[in-house]
Amino acid sequence: MNSPFSPASLADAHDGTVTGDLCLANATLVLPDRMVTGRVTVEAGVITAIDEGDHVPEGAVDCRGDHVTPGLVELHTDNLERHIEPRPSVDWPHMPALLAHDAELASTGITTVFDALRVGSIHDSKARYDAYARNLANELLAVRAAGHLKISHFLHLRAEICSETLLEEMAQFGPEDRVGIVSLMDHTPGQRQFRDLGALKTYVAKKRGMTDAEFVEHVANLKELQRLYGARHQAGAVTEAARYGAVLASHDDTTAAQVATSRANGVGFAEFPTTLEAAEACHAQGIAVMMGAPNLIRGGSHSGNVAAQELAEAGLLDIVSSDYVPSALLLSAFRLAAIWDDLPRAIACVSRNPARAAGLDDRGSLATGQRGDLLRMGLAGDVPLLRGVWSRGVRVS
Protein backbone atom coordinates (compact mmCIF):
# COMPACT_ATOMS: atom_id res chain seq x y z
CA MET A 1 0.00 0.00 0.00
CA ASN A 2 1.44 3.38 -1.00
CA SER A 3 1.45 6.11 1.63
CA PRO A 4 0.13 9.57 0.73
CA PHE A 5 2.72 11.15 3.01
CA SER A 6 6.25 12.24 2.21
CA PRO A 7 8.88 12.07 5.00
CA ALA A 8 11.02 14.78 3.39
CA SER A 9 10.40 17.46 6.03
CA LEU A 10 9.76 15.28 9.06
CA ALA A 11 13.23 14.78 10.53
CA ASP A 12 12.95 17.85 12.75
CA ALA A 13 9.25 17.44 13.51
CA HIS A 14 7.98 17.21 17.06
CA ASP A 15 8.22 13.87 18.86
CA GLY A 16 4.47 13.74 19.15
CA THR A 17 4.07 14.96 22.72
CA VAL A 18 3.87 18.40 24.19
CA THR A 19 6.44 19.21 26.82
CA GLY A 20 5.33 19.43 30.43
CA ASP A 21 6.28 20.42 33.95
CA LEU A 22 6.54 17.80 36.67
CA CYS A 23 8.00 17.12 40.10
CA LEU A 24 8.32 13.57 41.44
CA ALA A 25 9.19 13.84 45.13
CA ASN A 26 9.93 11.59 48.11
CA ALA A 27 11.26 8.99 45.68
CA THR A 28 14.16 6.57 45.56
CA LEU A 29 16.03 8.18 42.69
CA VAL A 30 18.21 5.84 40.64
CA LEU A 31 21.01 8.20 39.65
CA PRO A 32 23.86 7.16 37.32
CA ASP A 33 26.16 6.19 40.21
CA ARG A 34 24.00 5.84 43.34
CA MET A 35 20.49 5.82 44.77
CA VAL A 36 19.17 8.61 46.99
CA THR A 37 15.89 9.76 48.45
CA GLY A 38 14.95 12.93 46.67
CA ARG A 39 12.95 14.66 43.98
CA VAL A 40 13.37 15.32 40.28
CA THR A 41 11.94 18.45 38.68
CA VAL A 42 11.06 18.75 35.00
CA GLU A 43 10.32 22.07 33.31
CA ALA A 44 9.32 22.37 29.65
CA GLY A 45 10.18 18.70 29.16
CA VAL A 46 13.74 18.87 30.54
CA ILE A 47 15.13 17.89 33.96
CA THR A 48 16.08 21.14 35.68
CA ALA A 49 16.82 20.01 39.24
CA ILE A 50 17.58 16.94 41.34
CA ASP A 51 17.37 17.51 45.09
CA GLU A 52 17.96 15.13 47.98
CA GLY A 53 15.55 14.70 50.88
CA ASP A 54 11.98 13.58 51.42
CA HIS A 55 10.35 17.02 51.15
CA VAL A 56 7.23 17.09 48.94
CA PRO A 57 6.69 20.60 47.51
CA GLU A 58 3.19 21.85 46.82
CA GLY A 59 1.94 20.42 43.52
CA ALA A 60 4.53 17.63 43.44
CA VAL A 61 3.70 13.93 43.15
CA ASP A 62 4.47 12.14 46.42
CA CYS A 63 6.10 8.90 45.29
CA ARG A 64 6.09 7.46 48.83
CA GLY A 65 9.52 5.92 48.39
CA ASP A 66 8.90 4.37 44.98
CA HIS A 67 11.83 4.06 42.60
CA VAL A 68 12.18 6.71 39.89
CA THR A 69 14.40 5.93 36.92
CA PRO A 70 15.05 7.30 33.45
CA GLY A 71 12.72 6.11 30.68
CA LEU A 72 13.88 3.00 28.87
CA VAL A 73 15.65 3.16 25.50
CA GLU A 74 14.94 0.26 23.13
CA LEU A 75 17.32 -0.30 20.22
CA HIS A 76 15.99 -3.48 18.60
CA THR A 77 12.38 -4.57 18.74
CA ASP A 78 10.31 -6.61 16.30
CA ASN A 79 7.14 -5.39 18.02
CA LEU A 80 5.95 -3.11 15.21
CA GLU A 81 6.17 -5.94 12.68
CA ARG A 82 4.12 -8.10 15.05
CA HIS A 83 1.39 -5.46 15.14
CA ILE A 84 1.15 -5.00 11.36
CA GLU A 85 1.22 -8.78 10.79
CA PRO A 86 -0.27 -10.37 13.93
CA ARG A 87 -0.31 -13.77 12.20
CA PRO A 88 1.50 -14.95 9.06
CA SER A 89 -0.07 -13.33 5.97
CA VAL A 90 -2.54 -11.29 8.08
CA ASP A 91 -2.09 -7.61 7.13
CA TRP A 92 -3.49 -5.41 9.92
CA PRO A 93 -4.50 -1.79 9.18
CA HIS A 94 -1.32 0.21 9.66
CA MET A 95 -2.41 3.33 11.51
CA PRO A 96 -4.16 1.47 14.36
CA ALA A 97 -1.21 -0.94 14.42
CA LEU A 98 1.22 1.95 14.82
CA LEU A 99 -0.83 3.50 17.61
CA ALA A 100 -1.21 0.18 19.42
CA HIS A 101 2.51 -0.50 19.17
CA ASP A 102 3.34 2.97 20.52
CA ALA A 103 0.88 2.64 23.41
CA GLU A 104 2.14 -0.82 24.31
CA LEU A 105 5.74 0.35 24.53
CA ALA A 106 4.74 3.35 26.66
CA SER A 107 2.87 1.02 29.02
CA THR A 108 6.06 -0.99 29.61
CA GLY A 109 8.27 2.03 30.38
CA ILE A 110 9.93 2.41 26.97
CA THR A 111 10.11 6.12 26.12
CA THR A 112 12.51 5.94 23.15
CA VAL A 113 12.37 3.21 20.53
CA PHE A 114 14.26 2.38 17.37
CA ASP A 115 11.62 0.52 15.38
CA ALA A 116 13.22 -2.34 13.46
CA LEU A 117 12.18 -2.64 9.82
CA ARG A 118 13.57 -5.27 7.47
CA VAL A 119 15.19 -4.12 4.23
CA GLY A 120 16.14 -6.75 1.68
CA SER A 121 13.56 -9.05 0.09
CA ILE A 122 13.43 -12.64 -1.14
CA HIS A 123 11.03 -13.76 -3.85
CA ASP A 124 11.25 -17.50 -3.20
CA SER A 125 7.77 -19.00 -3.56
CA LYS A 126 7.62 -20.62 -0.11
CA ALA A 127 9.73 -18.27 2.06
CA ARG A 128 8.74 -15.04 0.37
CA TYR A 129 9.67 -11.71 1.96
CA ASP A 130 8.30 -8.68 0.14
CA ALA A 131 9.48 -5.08 0.49
CA TYR A 132 7.51 -3.04 3.01
CA ALA A 133 9.92 -0.79 4.94
CA ARG A 134 9.71 2.40 2.88
CA ASN A 135 5.91 2.64 2.91
CA LEU A 136 5.64 1.74 6.58
CA ALA A 137 8.34 4.28 7.47
CA ASN A 138 6.37 6.96 5.60
CA GLU A 139 3.29 6.13 7.65
CA LEU A 140 5.17 6.04 10.93
CA LEU A 141 6.89 9.37 10.30
CA ALA A 142 3.61 10.98 9.27
CA VAL A 143 1.78 9.75 12.38
CA ARG A 144 4.67 11.03 14.48
CA ALA A 145 4.62 14.46 12.79
CA ALA A 146 0.88 14.70 13.39
CA GLY A 147 1.52 14.39 17.14
CA HIS A 148 -0.31 11.10 17.61
CA LEU A 149 2.51 9.13 19.26
CA LYS A 150 3.22 8.99 22.98
CA ILE A 151 6.97 8.27 22.87
CA SER A 152 10.04 9.07 20.76
CA HIS A 153 10.46 6.96 17.62
CA PHE A 154 13.49 6.45 15.39
CA LEU A 155 14.06 3.88 12.63
CA HIS A 156 16.33 0.86 12.74
CA LEU A 157 16.90 -0.75 9.34
CA ARG A 158 17.66 -4.47 9.55
CA ALA A 159 19.82 -4.93 6.46
CA GLU A 160 19.38 -8.53 5.28
CA ILE A 161 22.64 -9.35 3.52
CA CYS A 162 21.25 -12.69 2.33
CA SER A 163 18.53 -11.23 0.08
CA GLU A 164 17.90 -10.12 -3.48
CA THR A 165 17.01 -6.42 -3.22
CA LEU A 166 18.85 -4.95 -0.22
CA LEU A 167 20.64 -2.04 -1.89
CA GLU A 168 17.62 -1.02 -3.98
CA GLU A 169 15.51 -0.80 -0.82
CA MET A 170 18.16 1.05 1.18
CA ALA A 171 18.52 3.61 -1.60
CA GLN A 172 14.94 4.72 -0.87
CA PHE A 173 15.98 6.13 2.53
CA GLY A 174 17.97 9.24 3.35
CA PRO A 175 19.27 11.46 6.17
CA GLU A 176 15.80 13.00 6.62
CA ASP A 177 14.24 9.71 7.71
CA ARG A 178 15.45 9.45 11.33
CA VAL A 179 17.29 6.20 10.55
CA GLY A 180 19.36 5.93 13.70
CA ILE A 181 20.64 2.36 13.36
CA VAL A 182 21.53 0.00 10.52
CA SER A 183 22.26 -3.57 11.57
CA LEU A 184 24.12 -5.98 9.30
CA MET A 185 22.19 -9.25 9.32
CA ASP A 186 23.45 -12.35 7.58
CA HIS A 187 21.02 -15.21 8.16
CA THR A 188 22.73 -17.62 5.77
CA PRO A 189 22.13 -21.14 7.15
CA GLY A 190 25.04 -22.88 8.80
CA GLN A 191 26.60 -19.87 10.53
CA ARG A 192 25.93 -17.19 13.17
CA GLN A 193 22.48 -17.61 14.74
CA PHE A 194 21.65 -20.58 12.54
CA ARG A 195 24.78 -22.69 12.90
CA ASP A 196 22.43 -25.49 13.94
CA LEU A 197 20.35 -26.36 10.88
CA GLY A 198 18.02 -28.38 13.09
CA ALA A 199 17.11 -25.28 15.07
CA LEU A 200 16.60 -23.35 11.83
CA LYS A 201 14.37 -26.08 10.45
CA THR A 202 12.20 -26.05 13.56
CA TYR A 203 11.88 -22.25 13.37
CA VAL A 204 11.13 -22.07 9.64
CA ALA A 205 8.84 -25.09 9.53
CA LYS A 206 6.69 -23.61 12.30
CA LYS A 207 6.60 -20.15 10.72
CA ARG A 208 6.30 -21.12 7.06
CA GLY A 209 4.94 -24.67 7.12
CA MET A 210 7.75 -26.15 5.01
CA THR A 211 8.12 -29.80 4.09
CA ASP A 212 11.54 -31.45 4.38
CA ALA A 213 12.13 -31.03 0.64
CA GLU A 214 11.08 -27.39 0.73
CA PHE A 215 13.44 -26.74 3.64
CA VAL A 216 16.39 -28.24 1.73
CA GLU A 217 15.53 -26.02 -1.25
CA HIS A 218 15.20 -23.00 1.05
CA VAL A 219 18.66 -23.55 2.56
CA ALA A 220 20.22 -23.96 -0.88
CA ASN A 221 18.54 -20.78 -2.10
CA LEU A 222 19.80 -18.70 0.82
CA LYS A 223 23.35 -20.00 0.42
CA GLU A 224 23.26 -19.09 -3.26
CA LEU A 225 22.01 -15.58 -2.45
CA GLN A 226 24.88 -15.14 -0.01
CA ARG A 227 27.36 -16.31 -2.65
CA LEU A 228 25.95 -13.95 -5.27
CA TYR A 229 25.34 -10.84 -3.20
CA GLY A 230 26.91 -11.18 0.26
CA ALA A 231 30.08 -9.13 -0.16
CA ARG A 232 28.42 -6.42 -2.27
CA HIS A 233 25.44 -6.13 0.08
CA GLN A 234 27.58 -5.85 3.18
CA ALA A 235 29.81 -3.14 1.67
CA GLY A 236 26.79 -1.29 0.29
CA ALA A 237 24.91 -1.38 3.61
CA VAL A 238 27.93 0.11 5.38
CA THR A 239 28.03 2.91 2.83
CA GLU A 240 24.30 3.57 3.12
CA ALA A 241 24.46 3.72 6.93
CA ALA A 242 27.12 6.42 6.63
CA ARG A 243 24.94 8.33 4.15
CA TYR A 244 22.03 8.30 6.61
CA GLY A 245 24.24 9.31 9.53
CA ALA A 246 23.20 6.10 11.31
CA VAL A 247 25.09 4.02 13.86
CA LEU A 248 26.16 0.65 12.48
CA ALA A 249 25.45 -2.57 14.43
CA SER A 250 26.58 -6.12 13.85
CA HIS A 251 24.22 -9.04 14.39
CA ASP A 252 24.90 -12.53 15.74
CA ASP A 253 28.70 -12.34 15.57
CA THR A 254 30.04 -15.77 16.52
CA THR A 255 33.83 -15.70 16.08
CA ALA A 256 36.64 -13.29 16.82
CA ALA A 257 37.23 -13.04 13.07
CA GLN A 258 33.65 -11.88 12.51
CA VAL A 259 34.08 -9.30 15.25
CA ALA A 260 37.27 -8.05 13.57
CA THR A 261 35.28 -7.58 10.37
CA SER A 262 32.61 -5.71 12.33
CA ARG A 263 35.25 -3.41 13.79
CA ALA A 264 36.68 -2.77 10.31
CA ASN A 265 33.20 -1.85 9.11
CA GLY A 266 32.87 0.73 11.90
CA VAL A 267 30.32 -1.13 14.01
CA GLY A 268 29.43 0.66 17.25
CA PHE A 269 27.59 -2.12 19.06
CA ALA A 270 26.98 -5.83 18.65
CA GLU A 271 23.47 -7.26 18.70
CA PHE A 272 23.24 -10.67 20.33
CA PRO A 273 26.74 -12.16 19.90
CA THR A 274 26.21 -15.90 19.99
CA THR A 275 29.35 -17.01 21.85
CA LEU A 276 31.54 -16.00 24.76
CA GLU A 277 34.42 -15.74 22.28
CA ALA A 278 32.57 -13.11 20.25
CA ALA A 279 31.54 -11.10 23.32
CA GLU A 280 35.12 -11.07 24.63
CA ALA A 281 36.37 -9.98 21.21
CA CYS A 282 33.78 -7.18 21.10
CA HIS A 283 34.99 -5.74 24.39
CA ALA A 284 38.60 -6.06 23.29
CA GLN A 285 37.71 -4.08 20.14
CA GLY A 286 35.69 -1.44 22.01
CA ILE A 287 32.31 -2.65 20.71
CA ALA A 288 29.40 -2.56 23.17
CA VAL A 289 27.56 -5.85 23.65
CA MET A 290 23.76 -6.03 23.53
CA MET A 291 21.77 -9.09 24.57
CA GLY A 292 18.07 -9.90 24.66
CA ALA A 293 15.95 -9.50 27.77
CA PRO A 294 14.07 -12.78 27.06
CA ASN A 295 17.40 -14.62 27.08
CA LEU A 296 18.23 -13.11 30.47
CA ILE A 297 14.82 -13.77 32.00
CA ARG A 298 14.44 -17.30 30.64
CA GLY A 299 17.97 -18.21 31.68
CA GLY A 300 19.25 -18.96 28.19
CA SER A 301 18.90 -18.51 24.45
CA HIS A 302 16.02 -20.21 22.62
CA SER A 303 18.49 -20.85 19.76
CA GLY A 304 21.11 -22.51 21.98
CA ASN A 305 23.52 -19.57 21.90
CA VAL A 306 25.41 -18.06 24.83
CA ALA A 307 23.32 -17.06 27.85
CA ALA A 308 23.00 -13.36 28.63
CA GLN A 309 23.52 -14.16 32.31
CA GLU A 310 26.88 -15.74 31.52
CA LEU A 311 27.98 -12.54 29.79
CA ALA A 312 26.64 -10.42 32.66
CA GLU A 313 28.57 -12.45 35.21
CA ALA A 314 31.71 -12.07 33.07
CA GLY A 315 31.28 -8.29 32.87
CA LEU A 316 30.62 -8.43 29.14
CA LEU A 317 27.03 -7.14 28.98
CA ASP A 318 26.44 -3.44 28.24
CA ILE A 319 22.96 -3.11 26.73
CA VAL A 320 19.72 -5.06 26.96
CA SER A 321 16.98 -5.10 24.30
CA SER A 322 13.42 -6.29 24.77
CA ASP A 323 13.73 -8.03 21.35
CA TYR A 324 10.31 -9.70 21.02
CA VAL A 325 8.80 -9.05 24.51
CA PRO A 326 8.47 -5.31 25.30
CA SER A 327 7.59 -5.86 28.96
CA ALA A 328 10.81 -7.84 29.43
CA LEU A 329 13.05 -4.78 29.27
CA LEU A 330 12.26 -3.28 32.69
CA LEU A 331 12.15 -6.70 34.35
CA SER A 332 15.56 -7.55 32.89
CA ALA A 333 17.12 -4.55 34.66
CA PHE A 334 16.05 -5.93 38.02
CA ARG A 335 17.38 -9.38 37.09
CA LEU A 336 20.71 -7.74 36.29
CA ALA A 337 20.60 -5.78 39.55
CA ALA A 338 20.31 -9.07 41.43
CA ILE A 339 23.32 -10.48 39.56
CA TRP A 340 25.48 -7.39 40.08
CA ASP A 341 24.00 -6.11 43.35
CA ASP A 342 23.98 -2.73 41.60
CA LEU A 343 20.68 -1.24 40.42
CA PRO A 344 22.17 1.95 38.90
CA ARG A 345 24.51 -0.14 36.75
CA ALA A 346 21.60 -2.36 35.68
CA ILE A 347 19.30 0.56 34.86
CA ALA A 348 22.08 2.05 32.72
CA CYS A 349 21.91 -1.06 30.50
CA VAL A 350 18.33 -0.19 29.52
CA SER A 351 18.62 3.60 29.47
CA ARG A 352 21.94 5.49 29.31
CA ASN A 353 24.03 2.81 27.58
CA PRO A 354 21.64 2.18 24.67
CA ALA A 355 21.06 5.92 24.27
CA ARG A 356 24.80 6.59 24.01
CA ALA A 357 25.34 3.62 21.70
CA ALA A 358 22.74 5.09 19.34
CA GLY A 359 24.36 8.52 19.48
CA LEU A 360 21.75 10.15 21.75
CA ASP A 361 23.23 12.22 24.57
CA ASP A 362 20.04 14.04 25.63
CA ARG A 363 18.33 11.15 27.47
CA GLY A 364 18.89 8.01 29.50
CA SER A 365 20.02 9.48 32.85
CA LEU A 366 18.53 11.24 35.84
CA ALA A 367 20.62 14.38 35.44
CA THR A 368 19.94 18.05 34.82
CA GLY A 369 19.67 18.92 31.15
CA GLN A 370 18.38 15.48 30.17
CA ARG A 371 14.93 14.86 28.69
CA GLY A 372 12.17 14.47 31.24
CA ASP A 373 11.55 10.80 30.36
CA LEU A 374 10.81 9.19 33.71
CA LEU A 375 9.41 6.03 35.28
CA ARG A 376 7.90 5.55 38.72
CA MET A 377 7.64 2.01 40.07
CA GLY A 378 7.07 0.00 43.19
CA LEU A 379 8.38 -3.50 43.79
CA ALA A 380 6.73 -6.84 44.44
CA GLY A 381 9.81 -8.73 45.60
CA ASP A 382 12.17 -8.30 42.64
CA VAL A 383 9.39 -7.60 40.12
CA PRO A 384 8.85 -3.92 39.22
CA LEU A 385 5.31 -2.56 39.41
CA LEU A 386 5.16 0.30 36.94
CA ARG A 387 3.03 3.13 38.34
CA GLY A 388 3.71 5.99 35.94
CA VAL A 389 5.51 6.80 32.69
CA TRP A 390 6.35 10.33 31.53
CA SER A 391 7.76 11.43 28.17
CA ARG A 392 9.25 14.93 28.22
CA GLY A 393 7.37 15.61 31.42
CA VAL A 394 3.98 14.51 30.05
CA ARG A 395 2.34 11.40 31.46
CA VAL A 396 1.87 8.76 28.75
CA SER A 397 0.97 5.72 30.84
TrEMBL record:
It is an enzyme of class 3 (hydrolase). Its EC number is 3.6.1.63. One of its GO terms (biological process) is organic phosphonate catabolic process. It comes from the Bacteria. InterPro entries: Metal-dep_hydrolase_composite (IPR011059), Metal_Hydrolase (IPR032466), Metallo-dep_Hydrolase (IPR051781), PhnM (IPR012696). Keywords: Hydrolase, Plasmid. GO terms for molecular function: hydrolase activity, acting on carbon-nitrogen (but not peptide) bonds. This is Alpha-D-ribose 1-methylphosphonate 5-triphosphate diphosphatase.
